[in-house]
Specification:
300 residues; globular; 24% strand; Uridine Diphospho-n-acetylenolpyruvylglucosamine Reductase, domain 2; Uridine Diphospho-n-acetylenolpyruvylglucosamine Reductase, domain 3; alpha+beta; 3 domains; Enolase-like, domain 1
Length: 300
């Protein structure tokens, strides 16, 4: 294994100080959170940097908490802490499932949510689930702090709205509406430690009778330049009592909205087929869960 190249090392104790350092070395510095992507790129992929900005010295942004009904996850929270958090497992368990599909346990103990998202890989496991959860990103840059929908955060492969000038501080997740259910699927060659070939997240909300779908969110990973919502597919089931006809139409639409490439992990055609299959399975599994919950409540 190659040795790390020489670089200037900065370890600020606040995001404000980190932003100042970014501005002073713009274009010649990269933030480091968990380091599970950056250090590998430096050791094995020939990436050379003049400066590295270690964010681990910033306190208070590795927590997972509930505030005024919404869940706040610090950008420096580890993937393992999200996977095992009692709050996440109780309130939004499919995000815990998605986190548990990233790498090995050792990687998850080091990798951070902010790093996973800011790396802006199209296959990032947390992004589709967070899209379905209507999550927002709290960002700090030289202009101050702002909050944007996470769907607006990604602008291309490896590119975000931060553009080397800002940092993510938190992810904010509003409460789930009543009568909602969600699910996440990841397909990869191996069950662990592989990047996604396809990732699909579905969240459906139903009326009080749990018959009509009042809202639908379906998000994909690894099948376009960025993670994406397939809004055409969502409109085909929103407002309806979902039958096999609507399920098939939504799956067809989702596969058309995906824009996959062919690479060593899978062909574009294969990815398109898997999107179709997983969207169908996701909707069917959620319907079965909602009906089961409704039946159990009726018996009580």
């Amino acid at each position: 294994m190659r040795r790390l190249p020489r670089f200037e090392y900065f370890k600020p104790d606040s995001f404000e100080a980190a932003v100042r350092i970014l501005g002073e070395h713009k274009g010649r510095i990269r933030p480091l959170a968990g380091g599970t992507d950056l250090l590998i790129a430096m050791k094995e992929k020939g990436l050379t940097l003049e400066n590295v900005l270690d964010l681990k010295g910033i306190k208070g942004f590795d927590s997972i908490q509930e505030s005024k009904g919404q869940i706040e996850i610090g950008a420096l929270a580890t993937i393992r802490s999200i996977e095992t958090s009692p709050l996440i497992r109780t309130k939004i368990p499919f995000l815990s499932v998605a986190a548990g599909m990233i790498g090995s346990v050792q990687i998850r103990h080091r990798a951070t949510l902010g790093g996973n998202l800011c790396n802006a890989s199209p296959s990032a496991e947390t992004a589709p689930s967070l899209f379905c959860l209507a999550a927002s990103a709290e960002i700090i840059d030289e202009k101050g702090v702002r909050v944007i929908p996470l769907e607006e955060f990604f602008v291309g492969p490896g590119q975000t709205v931060l553009n080397g000038s800002g940092l993510m501080r938190k992810i904010l997740i509003p409460p789930l509406p009543p009568n909602s259910a969600c699910i996440y699927f990841k397909h990869s060659p191996r069950r662990a430690m592989d990047l996604s070939v396809v990732g699909v997240a579905c969240l459906l909300t139903f009326d009080s009778a749990r018959r009509r779908c009042t809202d639908a969110r379906i998000a994909l990973g690894a099948v376009a330049p960025t993670p994406l919502r397939v809004k055409g597919a969502e409109t085909l089931i929103r407002g309806k009592e979902i039958t096999e006809k609507e399920i098939e139409e939504a799956a067809d639409s989702a596969s058309r909205e995906a824009k996959p490439i062919t690479d060593v992990r899978g062909s574009a055609e294969y990815r398109t087929d898997m999107v179709h299959w997983f969207v169908k399975k996701g909707i069917r599994d959620i319907l079965a869960r909602i009906k089961s919950d409704s039946h159990q409540e009726a018996e009580r």
